[in-house]
Amino acid sequence: MEAGPATVLAAVGVQKRFGALTVLDGVHLALTQGEAIGIVGPNGAGKTTLLNVLAGSLRPEAGSVVFRGRDITPKDAADRCQLGIARTHQVPRPFTGMTVFENVFVGATAGGGRSGSSAYDVSLEVLDQCALTHLANRRAEDLGLLQRKRLELARALAVGPAVLLLDEIGGGLTDAESAALVETIASLRDRGIAVLWIEHIVHVLMQVVTRLVCMDAGRIIAEGAPEAVVAQAAVIDAYLGTRA
Amino acid sequence: MTLVNAIVQGIFLGAFYAVLACGLSIMFGVMRIINLAHGDIAVFGAYLTFVVVDHTGAPALVAFAAALPVMLVLGYILQITVLERSLKAGLLTPLLATFGLSIVIQNLLLIAFSPDVRSLGPAAGALTTASWHVTSELSFSALGVVVLAVAIVVFGALQLFLSRTRAGWAMRATAEDADAAELVGIDSRSVYARATAIAVAIAALGGLFLAIRSVFDPISGPTQLIFAFEAVVIGGMGSLWGTLLGGIALGLAQTLGAEIQPQFAVLAGHLLFLAVLIVRFGGARLTLRVAR
Fold first, then answer.
1. Is the pLDDT of residue B114 over 90?
2. Is A25 helix (H, G, I), strand (E, B) or coil?
């Protein structure tokens, strides 16, 4: 996979093993600016591990991670965040003892490198965008799951990311809520943020992504236009688990 | 009136314990490290101040101001050289590392300063001896008032730092979830190093007060560690204001215990500590199993 000029973030031949288990087996994936890629695949396919490798929480055994033409494989998660790679967790991990505003503000200052009123403005903006403004002064531990998921997204956005890595933020949402989420993600994509979104709920994913990737057993087994990928029997088999 | 005096003295003594315990509380709160060398670090700080006094003849407080930046730097270095590595190896390793550090500090101090007992009392001048006698049985010592004021300033400043500054917010975020903090761009490594630097510097302040109010020698550390540890546990582990209150509760227990019987002072503090442990951390497990 060539890293073209517009490529923001790329995994190049990434391999990751946990003991004897190969979780990522030579994954190539390039994300270009303004593109939203959806990743689907069965549990254990290596989707979250790929996200961890891209975000810097895990080091690959082989291969590299390239950001805007620079090899960032040795950089840790904090450095990558400061470069503009933000992620959300499948199970939200807010700083529960801090207020919603403080959670977001930390992202704007530490990750986004902003200070003073500029950090303040960005924090308010993302709180507004994620419909959390009315909860700004509540402690994060008081939030319910859906609000925590929104906070997770808000905190990642406060960083001012060039790349947004989303790990199943759509799970458990009602139709109206997922429609709002789709709208938010689409507007981020249109603003030029590259989005990589892992999601089990394919029909939600289909409304946003420009490209769909299907993973199984640590490999990419199908990739391309969303409709085409979904149509592929291999994908259906892998995803629905009809294979023996 | 003797009871009122005992309470006043208990608060002063407790403020001293709170200053001593503050750094221990920070390191536990931010990194979940129980620093068994904390008392020895405090004593090390006292010796450093003592050396400055000895060479320059400066008053103790001025000498301490010179020692403080050195302690900050030493704390920073301690974190990035020893503790950071040990943290990667699980929960037990930092405990063992600080236990080893405790022994190393004690022996280095023995080599450098001999087992002789020292005090910074003379170098602190009027601070050591001045007091206001309100009645024949109630007096406020200058040192007691200063320690209490300093304790309130230190804890208040830490509170402001943690609630109002960027670095403080980053520290709270890291204390809660270091991995998640990394993912919003917080370098947990430098946050930890800053936390240890602050903890070590405040430990040295505790060492200074110890050295002014009484005497110290190279093996004074472990006793101070026990008082500091008790203050942290009584106050609820890792809570800042809790540590201040825990220190004062410990001080009160000791002076009130001494009212009953002078030898009972330290034991009364330990008993309070034990009572808190039993109430808070599952007394059920301490039930005796009677063999039939």
1. yes
2. strand
pLDDT tens readout for residues A153-186: 999 999 999 999 999 888 878 888 888 889 999 9
Question: Would an 8 Å CB–CB cutoff place B182 in contact with chain A?
Answer: yes
Residue A243 confidence (pLDDT) above 50: no
Residue of B nearest to A165 (CA): B183
Q: For residue B290, what pLDDT is reported?
A: 47
pLDDT at B167 over 70: yes
Residue B289: the pLDDT is: 46
In angstroms, rounded to a whole number, what is the distance separating the alpha carbons of residues B201 and A60? Answer: 39
Distance CA B147, CA A198 (A): 56
Host domain of residue B69: 2-286
Q: A208-228 in b/e burial notation, b at 16+ Cβ within 10 A? A: bbebbbbbbebbbbbbeebee
CB contact under 8 A, A106 and B186: yes
Domains of chain A: 1-78+164-244 (3.40.50.300), 85-160 (no CATH)
Q: Structure pTM?
A: 0.86
Q: Is residue B292 part of a domain?
A: no
B191 near A CB under 8 A = no
Mutation pick from B169, B183, B190 vs chain A, by most beta carbons of A within 10 Å, is B183
- CATH assignment of the domain containing B96: 1.10.3470
Chain A residues within 8 A of B181 when measuring between CB atoms: 78, 95, 106, 110
User: Count of CB contacts below 8 A, A vs B?
Assistant: 78
Number of structural domains found in chain B:
1
Phi, psi of A165, rounded to the nearest 5 degrees: -105, 115
